[in-house]
Design goal:
By secondary structure, this protein is an all-alpha fold. The chain contains 10 helices and 2 strands, in the order H-H-E-E-H-H-H-H-H-H-H-H. It is elongated and about 60 Å long.
Length: 269
């Protein structure tokens, strides 16, 4: 008599991802806020700042490229930091623990959710950028290849950090405060809300330690002309360093998840 093999962690993760997507898109108010908040901030910033750069690039176009990184952080780090804490609070994680699903499969399911939500977020932000700020979509395949790997590394690194930080919240109610402080602070320090050239050196140094800065810079390299590279702190797009930092945070984030993840609100649970 043969025993049927248990599904792999990847297979369970993909199945869990489908469940996560259904649950996410059923919460219409949450979906609307998640998608519209970065686009709303983009409209405000692009309308308030009217600075023009050499080559005819406007502040609105710079913000549009940078806000793609910020939008991914919102759908990954912010959304998961609160969402996982809520799963822990309402007993979802406790119920999942009684199934064959390992923690790794749960992580995969969350990354699937973030990937789909982030892609939709990018489409919305690009639509706003094209319509309101004359953002030009790249025609070179190399730029879209850069977009693909920056997007992938950004969602994985920020998702892992979102899951990890959820364990530092005592409840779903406190998770919002725990996640919003680093989220908002890093937007300013990473050249998302304020151009990098206007930031003090210490902010640039601190921002460079975290993924947000590199995600925003990576997307600027995709959607802005090469003439804008002089506006970056290093005078270069630093794509190699972007890949290294984001990849390192993927590893660090996964390690933090494995070390801190809890199925219940009881320490050690």
């Amino acid at each position: 008599m043969t025993t049927a093999a248990l599904p792999s962690a990847a297979g369970l993760g993909l199945s869990r991802g489908a469940v996560e997507l259904r649950q996410f898109f059923r919460q219409k108010d949450h979906v609307i806020f998640t998608f519209t908040f970065p686009a709303f901030i983009l409209v405000l910033l692009g309308s308030i700042f009217d600075e023009a750069y050499p080559g005819g690039v406007t502040a609105g176009q710079v913000f549009a490229a940078s806000m793609i990184g910020a939008g991914i952080v919102a759908t990954s780090f912010l959304n998961l930091g609160i969402g996982v804490a809520l799963d822990r609070d309402d007993g979802t994680l406790k119920r999942l623990r009684g199934t064959p699903m390992p923690a790794a499969a749960y992580f995969v399911g969350k990354v699937v959710l973030v990937a789909v939500a982030s892609l939709a977020e990018v489409v919305l932000l690009l639509a706003v950028g094209v319509v309101m700020f004359d953002v030009s979509l790249p025609t070179e395949a190399s730029r879209w290849l850069t977009f693909a790997w920056v997007f992938l590394l950004s969602i994985v690194s920020c998702s892992m950090l979102g899951i990890a930080i959820s364990s530092f919240a005592k409840s779903a109610q406190s998770a919002s405060a725990v996640t919003n402080l680093p989220y908002v602070g890093l937007q300013f320090m990473s050249g998302v809300y304020i151009p990098v050239g206007q930031l003090p050196d210490w902010m640039i140094t601190v921002g460079a330690l975290f993924p947000v800065k590199w995600a925003a810079q990576g997307f600027r390299s995709v959607f802005l002309p090469d003439s804008m590279v002089v506006q970056e702190a290093a005078g270069s797009w630093e794509l190699g360093k972007t890949a290294l930092v984001l990849g390192t945070w993927c590893v660090i984030g996964l390690a933090l998840c494995l070390l801190t993840f809890r199925w219940t609100n009881k320490r050690g649970g």
